[in-house]
Amino acid sequence: MHGLYYRRGAQGIREGVACWNGHLLWQWEEVECSLPVFDSSLLSPWNLVLAERLAMTTAATPYGGDGDAWANAWKAQALLAGWVPFASFSLDGPDALSWCERAGAAGLIYTFEREEYIEGGRIRNDRLHIIAGRAQTYGELFDIPAVIDRYRAALPAGLAEQQIAPLKQHRDVPVATYVSAKERLLERAPRAVQGLTLGHPLEMTIMHVVDSVPIIAALRPADDPKDMPVLPPEAMWRPPISRVQRTALPRCRHPDEHERIGAAGNLVLGGELLAFVQAHWPAELLPSMVRSVAELATRGYVLATAYTHYLITPIPARRLISPELHQYICCVLRGLGRSPESIHLDAEVNRAFLQSV
Q: Which of 19, 238, 330, 339 is deepest in the core (most CB within 10 A)?
């Protein structure tokens, strides 16, 4: 198997997988729209999966030993080939100059700046960081009315209009407007515009919009159900209701002690737990990565860090986990004296902060 495959998931949700030469590369959830899938050669799940080097495991991926170099080369080629509308990447001097010579003929506008890096203990600056986008307007590249129809079909009116208004405003705006080495313009753009600019399918982007709806109220516990705060309208509508239901944390099923990492009866889940921690360990803490279930059992506190990192990762770049593993994680955390509910609340606050900067 090699390609993209889909199946129907929870109500209003579609699950997708990307396979590479017979191996599962990535798995995600997206909104299942009532209208036909929006067809554009510039929008593909590969544009997210490959550009971000997403992978379920480090084995059997196309990224090789130097994933950053592979992703940079792929994005450079994807722009020239017309697979993506916009990208930022770094290339060594000769490769960068060759790329710039070809960019004009491909209808691209770009800017660049020198990038310092350390090699062999020396500081070098012969690498260029390039930001490039197509010269055409959003209206020339995409059927904006059809895009708007899908947002209206998939989202409640208030949430949809938050994305539709900027889409209308961008109809006559060139994609290359976001080419700037000094300002993070695209990071501050509405998600609908971000998705089109980066070449992500509408169904993925709409799921990202859904995932951004605050649901702290749904997570906050209350002793009396009558004291539960009122959910925002967006969180009560389907498919966000699926998100609220998934966020309703699984309860422990045992009458006595909580699960322990490495217990004899849960060797399989222990292995899955190790893979989960390794996949969601922050890059800046890489030297302290746990390498075995036995080590994880002695440093169980790292599970809370990995779980928090998992929660603040936006959909669809968040790796899917099974209900059984999720319940096991929550049970182990409770046994370690860490409340999954509190971790969820902290993660929501972190997500809100990251979206505001």
A: 330
In a domain? residue 100: no
- Would 289 be classed as within a structural domain? yes
Q: How many domains does the chain have?
A: 2
Closest CA to 134 of 88, 180, 174: 174
Q: Are residues 255 and 352 in the same domain?
A: yes
Q: Determine the distance from the C-alpha atom of residue 230 to the mean position of all C-alpha atoms in its chain, rounded to a whole number.
A: 28
Nearest residue to 10 (alpha-carbon basis) of 228, 315, 331:
315
Containing structural domain, residue 180:
139-211
Tell me, yes or no, if the pTM score tops 0.90.
Answer: no
Rounded alpha-carbon distances, angstroms, from residue 130 to 72, 79, 92, 308 = 10, 11, 11, 32
Per the CB < 8 A criterion, the answer to whether 317 and 185 are in contact is: no
The H-or-E segment that residue 14 falls in is strand 13-20
DSSP-assigned letter for residue 319: P
Last residue of a domain, one of 193, 211, 229: 211
Helix H or strand E encompassing 87: strand 86-92
